[in-house]
Amino acid sequence: MAKYHKLLVAIDPNQDDQPALRRAVYVVQRLGGTIKAFLPIYDFSYEMTTLLSADERTAMRRGVIDQRTAWIEEQCQHYINSGIPIEIKVVWHNRPFEAIIQEIIAHQHDLLLKTTHQHDRLESVIFTPTDWHLLRKCPCPVWMVKDQAWPQGGKALVAVNLSGEDPYHDPLNIKLVEETLALAEQINQTEVHLVGAYPVTPINIAIELPDFDPSVYNDAIRGQHLIAMKSLRQKFNLDQKFTHVEKGLPEEVIPDLAVHLDAGVVVLGSIGRTGFSAAFIGNTTELVIDHLKCDLLTIKPDDYVSPVTLEEGDQFE
Predict the structure, then answer these.
(1) Per-domain residue ranges for the chain?
(2) Are 204 and 167 a contacting pair, CB within 8 Å?
């Protein structure tokens, strides 16, 4: 059961509009809990001001932090006045992703929200290097919020792994579906759909083995995935119309279905072992994400441990 009560919002320092903050307020209004508006800032020029003493450089950093804190307070004032509990914290840190993850670990936040930006021409979501570090290394779920309104009647699409030996017993599959269903019920009563992609016939096999029948192979693979999906949906009493087993590459199937369903969010599982390898399709997850045009929620397994520790780096608050 998803219980997101200690939300951390990574503030975008480059714009007054904060879609991630709006989404966090929306969640807290329905689930309760608290929000921390968090901003790591750093300006290398301040560190290179050798004509100033250490105390003077500290005072300059403090002045910048105070200015940014006041700016965030302006963005939050309307929500605070309406009774939303928001804490504001600005720190001086030269690696934003590290500062954010350390804050999450130190204060046990259970959901991170951060705004992503949409490429006007391609309509796809653009992820910064900081976004990728957070997706790979953050121990709690990460909700990347697109800087556009949630579509009317937008659905949640959960990508599940149907290729394992026992996919309907896969703990991460179960966690993804459980948490998404819980969020849908508690927040906006949206439809939850499951999707699994299965591979097409390898061309080299069809060429090298004259007696190989691609249609038989495809039917067998599809059959295995349909059986796995049926077992998974029955575990959660989902109607068949909410499950989709599609042939093709995951980076094509998942974004295309998200567009077809007018999904508001795609939910992915990640084990984050090498790069950003996902539990259901390995390293193709990065390709899936690159093609999305909606919000993204990534969830780690229960036993995931972030490579970022509290001992790394220094913060000035």
Answers:
(1) 1-146, 149-316
(2) no
Asked if CATH classification 2.30.110.10 holds for the domain at 1-146, the reply, yes or no, is no
End-to-end CA distance of the chain: 35
CB 141 within 8 A of CB 110: yes
pTM of structure: 0.87
Range with lowest mean pLDDT among 39-53, 223-237, 242-256: 39-53
Q: What is the mean pLDDT of residues 186-214?
A: 74
CB 137 within 8 A of CB 97: yes
According to DSSP, residue 188 is labeled I
CA distance 173 to 231: 12
- pLDDT for 150 equals 73
C-alpha distances (whole Å) from 249 to each of 203, 229, 285 are: 14, 17, 11
Q: Is the dihedral of CA 116, 120, 121, 123 positive or negative?
A: positive
Cα–Cα distance between 183 and 195 in angstroms, integer? 18
Question: Looking at the chain, how many residues does it have?
Answer: 317
Identify the CATH number of the domain defined by range 149-316: 3.40.50.12370
Give the integer Cα–Cα distance in Å for 179 and 299.
Answer: 9
C-beta separation of 232 from 195 below 8 A: no
Q: Is 175 helix (H, G, I), strand (E, B) or coil?
A: helix
* One fold for 1-146 and 149-316: yes
State the Cα torsion 111-114-120-123 to the nearest 10°: -20
